[in-house]
Amino acid sequence: MATAEKERVEVEKEFNAIESLKDTFNNLDRDTLGLLVALVVGLISILLLLIFIGKRSKKQGIILAGICDAGKTLIFTQLIHKSFKETYTSIKSNAGSFTTPKKKKTIRIFDLPGHERLRTQAFEEYGKLTRAIVFVIDSTTYQKSIKDVAEYLYTMMCNALVLKITPVLILCNKQDQTFAKGAKAIKSTLEKELNVVRTTHSAALGGSDGASENNNTYLGKRNKDFEFSDVHSLKIEFAECTALSKEDVPVDLQSLLDWLDKIV
Ligand SMILES: Nc1nc2c(ncn2[C@@H]2O[C@H](COP(=O)(O)OP(=O)(O)O)[C@@H](O)[C@H]2O)c(=O)[nH]1
Ligand SMILES: [Mg+2]
C-alpha cells in the first residue's frame, strides 16, 4: 500500500514538472522565441564559417617543384626578396611568405629540393598545406633530362589528385637563353614522354591497360595517348618565365605573378 502511495506521489511530481515547463514556454511570447531561434542559428553559422576559414587558411601554400637546376630556388628568392641571395640552399626546403601584387593575399611559398629522396620527404611535409603546385622546367636542357622531368611531373600530378590540389602551373624557365624552347614545344614533348611514364606505371600495377589502377589516379583518358587537356580533375596551365636578371634581359616572372593572383 505504502509503495503504491509513493509511486503516485512520484508520478504527480513528474506531471507537475512537465506542467511548469509548459507554463514557462507559454509565458514566453512569440518574439522572444523567435529571437532565441535566430540567436542559435546565428551562432551555428559563425561556427561553420570559422571552421571553413580555418581550413582554407591552412592550405595557403604554393609548392615550387621540379628537378635540380630548373631554377626553383632563384624563383623563390626573386619572389620573397625580389633579389638574388646566395644563402638559400637546394639541399633542404625553403619556406617564405609572399603577398600577391593585385589581390594582396599573403601565401606561403615552399621551394622543395630537387633530389629524388629529399623531394618525397619534403612533399610529405608540405603537401597537406598546399593549394597549388608550380612545376619548374629548365627550357634549355629539358630534352636531355626528359625522363626525369616526366617521371617527377607524373608523380606530382598523382599527388595533386590525391590531395585535391587542383591548380598546376608548368613554368618553362630560362627563356632568356638563346636555345630555350617555348611552352608549346615543351608541352608536346612532355605529353609524349608522359604517355610512356603512364604505361610503365600502369604495367607496374598489374595490367598494361591500367584496369587495376584506381580510377581517381589514372591521368588522362584510357586507350588514348596522354594529353594534358584530358586530365579534367586538375587545372593545368603552361607559362614561360626568366628568373635571372642580366644587363640585357630583365627578370620576367609576370606570368607566374598573374597566375598566383588568379588562384589565391
Ligand atoms: N640564364 C638563366 N639562368 C637561370 C635562370 N633561372 C635560374 N638560373 C640558373 O640556374 C641555376 C640553378 O638555379 P637554382 O635556382 O639553384 O635551381 P634549383 O635547383 O631548381 O633550385 C643557377 O645557376 C641559376 O642562376 C634563368 O631564368 N635564366
Ligand atoms: Mg633549389
TrEMBL record:
Pfam families: SRPRB
Annotated protein name in UniProt: Signal recognition particle receptor subunit beta
Keywords of the record: Endoplasmic reticulum, GTP-binding, Membrane, Nucleotide-binding, Receptor, Transmembrane, Transmembrane helix
This protein's record includes keyword Iron-sulfur: no
Transmembrane segments: 33-53
PROSITE patterns: ARF
PANTHER family listed in its UniProt record: ADP-RIBOSYLATION FACTOR-RELATED PROTEIN 1
Family: Belongs to the SRP receptor beta subunit family.
GO BP annotation list: Golgi to plasma membrane protein transport; intracellular protein transport; protein localization to Golgi apparatus
Transmembrane helix recorded as keyword: yes
A GO CC annotation given for this chain: Golgi apparatus
Membrane topology per record: Single-pass membrane protein
Subcellular compartments: Endoplasmic reticulum membrane
Alphabetical list of InterPro entries matching this protein: P-loop_NTPase, Small_GTPase_ARF, SRP_receptor_beta_su
Single GO molecular function: GTP binding
Lineage: Eukaryota, Metazoa, Spiralia, Lophotrochozoa, Mollusca
